[in-house]
Design brief:
single chain, alpha/beta
Length: 210
């Protein structure tokens, strides 16, 4: 077989160690899914939402992209992968919560900052991280955010806030929120510390979760 050894060994561990104890769950999931939560996460291999939230199969509906971005609701804009997942989660699955999960040391955020210095980000990465142009310029214009690490983290937080704002502009999301059927949340994960920071709904600040 051409399966990479690390994937084959992982699959065999799943079959021997995990599947026997969860076979009934998988049989139930074969008839459909009904997750209560959607997570918009980053494609970064170090930040797996199911790992962070100790979620079992079927509990989270997850879409991942570079820098955990939600584009504005523009059917002609070309960013349909994330938007299609959102529409399915809200209008078909009826999720009650959507979490935009950012993280520290995000490569997509770093690419956005590098683009400000005219450093190339790639043919496909560049137009995608251009979604962060407005918050990036706000960070770069703030005299109190002086060093590179502070700018990186500030833009990671602002990117989450912008994605939440874009979420609220989708008509089907707004309708579900107005009907008290849907809540939006922002979160940020520190990779080195393994600590989740949750956005305060009133102040907008990100606070570490105990």
């Amino acid at each position: 077989m051409s399966i990479p050894d690390r994937l084959l060994s992982g699959y065999r561990r799943f079959r021997s160690d995990r599947f026997p104890g969860e076979s009934e769950r998988f049989r139930r999931l074969a008839s459909g899914q009904s997750p209560a939560t959607m997570v918009v996460g980053c494609a970064d291999s170090r930040v797996d939402p199911a790992t962070v939230f100790s979620a079992a199969p079927g509990e989270l509906f997850v879409v991942r992209n570079v820098a955990n971005l939600v584009p504005p609701p523009d059917p002609a804009g070309g960013y349909h992968g994330t938007s299609a997942a959102l529409e399915f989660a809200v209008t078909v699955l009826g999720v009650s919560d959507i979490v935009v999960l950012g993280h520290g040391l995000c490569g997509g955020v770093a690419a956005s900052l590098a683009a400000a210095g005219r450093s190339p980000a790639g043919d496909y990465i560049a137009p995608w991280v251009a979604l962060l142009d407005a918050p990036r310029e706000a960070v770069l214009a703030d005299p109190e955010i002086a060093d590179a690490s502070a700018r990186q983290r500030a833009l990671e937080f602002l990117g989450i806030r912008q994605s939440l704002a874009n979420l609220g502009r989708f008509p089907f999301v707004r309708a579900a929120m107005d009907a008290d059927r849907l809540r939006l949340h922002g979160a940020w994960f520190s990779i080195a510390e393994g600590v989740l920071h949750w956005q305060d709904g009133e102040t907008g600040a990100f606070r570490a979760v105990d």
